Amino acid sequence: MTSKERVKRAVHFQGPDRIPYMWSALPGAVLRHGRALEEIFREYPDDFGVGGPEWAGFADFQVPARYEPGLWTEPEWNVVWRQEIRGIVGHPYICPLADWDNLATYEFPRVNPTAIAQQVAALRPSVGFDGMGAFETGRQAADRPPPDWYVMPGGGTLYERLQQLRGFENLLVDLATDDPRIYDLRDRVASYWHEALAEWARYEIVDCYAWFDDWGTQQALQIRPEKWRQFFKPAYDYIFEPLRAAGKDIHFHSDGYVWDIIPDLIEIGVHIVWVQVFLMGIEEFGREFRGKVCVRTDLDRQHVLPHGSPAEVKAHVKQAVDNLALPEGGLILHAEVGPDVPLENVRALAEAYVEYGQL
C-alpha cells in the first residue's frame, strides 16, 4: 500500500494497513537542530513525502522572509507583520482596514490562475509550514513521476484574514454590533477563496486542501457558537464548495477549544480536523467523535513535547491511538516540532508512531 493509498483509506475509514503519520516542523526547529532533525525524518519517512532516501532534506533550507525579525509586508493583502523571533511567525502590525474609511481605496487581491499553476508545478514535500506541500521557486516537476504520497497544499484563512485586515479588537466589535460592513468584507474574502479553491481543485495531483483558522481559547470558542454558525459557517460552506464538487478532501486546522463547532465542520464536508484533542479531553473527544471525522493529532506542544520525557511522549502517542483510532481508520499521527522540542523527544515520536501505529 502506498502512502497516498494509506492516508486516503484512513481519511475515508476504508481500512489502511497501519496508521499514517506526518512530520511538520517550524523553521525555528530546523534552525536549532538542522541535520540531526533531518536524519530522524529520513530514518522515519512519513506518508506526506517527508523523509526516506529520495527526500531533499534541509540542504536548500532558507528562512522565509515572514519568519525573519523585523517588519514584513504581505504582498497580496498588504498586511504588515512584525516578527520578534527568527523562525517563528509574528503578528499583524498594521491592518490596512483598521479604519473603515480605507475600504474605498483598498485593492483586494485577485486570484491568479497562472501563479497557482506554477505553484502546482513546483509542489514538493516540506517539513516546514505545518507539514503541507511547500513551493520551490524555479524547480519544475514535469519530469517527475506522480507522487505516491498524500499531497496536501493549503494556507487559506477567513477568520484570521478578517483579523489581519481589520484588527482583532475591531473585528470582535464588528461581530458584536452586527456591523453590515463586516458582512461585505466577509463576502469579498470568501469570494476570493472560493475562486482560488476552484483553481486548486482542477489539479489531479492535489488530494486535499488544508484550511487554517484558529478559533479557540484554552477554554472555549472565541465567539459564541451561535454567532459562528450564523456568520462564518455559511461562508465556509461556500468557500469549500469547489473542493467538494471535485471530490477533494478538506482539512481544517484550529488551535484551542473548538468542541462546539466540530459537528458543523463535519456537516459542511470537512474530512480531516487538526485540533488540540488533548486540550479538549482526549477520552471525551474520542467518545464523541471517533469514527465521525479523521483526526490529525496535535500532540501536546505546550507541555508534553517540550518538557516531557521520551517515555512520556511515547505514552502520549499511545493515548491518542487508544482513544481515536479504529481498524477502519480515522487517525493521522502528527506533532508539530517547534524549536523548544528536544531531539530525543522527536525520536520518541518516531518510535511511537511505528510501535503503536499498527492496526
Report what the structure shows:
With 359 residues, this protein is an alpha/beta fold. It has a single domain (3-356), classed as TIM Barrel (Alpha-Beta Barrel). It is built from 13 helices and 12 strands. The protein has helices at 3-11, 27-33, 35-43, 113-121, 159-166, 168-177, 180-200, 225-246, 262-267, 282-289, 304-307, 310-324, 343-356; strands at residues 21-25, 70-73, 80-83, 91-94, 123-124, 134-135, 154-156, 208-212, 249-254, 272-275, 294-297, 331-337. The strands form 3 sheets. The chain has a 7-stranded parallel sheet with strand order 1-12-11-10-9-8-7. Helix 10 links the parallel strand 10 and strand 11 (294-297). Helix 3 packs parallel to helix 13 and helix 7 packs parallel to helix 8 (225-246). It is globular. Mean pLDDT is 93; it is low at 129-142.
Structural class: alpha/beta
Biggest sheet, spatial arrangement of strands: 1-12-11-10-9-8-7
Under CATH, the topology is which?
TIM Barrel
Succession of helices and strands? HEHHEEEHEEEHHHEHEHEHEHHEH
Query: Which whole number gives the mean pLDDT?
Result: 93
Report how far apart the termini are: 14 Å
Shape designation: globular
Share of helix among residues? 25-40%
Number of DSSP E strands? 12
Strand content: 5-15%
Counted up, domains total 1
What is the CATH level 1 assignment?
Alpha Beta
Helix count equals 13
Largest sheet: 7 strands, parallel
Which architecture does the CATH hierarchy give at level 2?
Alpha-Beta Barrel
C-alpha Rg (nearest Å): 20 Å
Low-confidence segments: 129-142
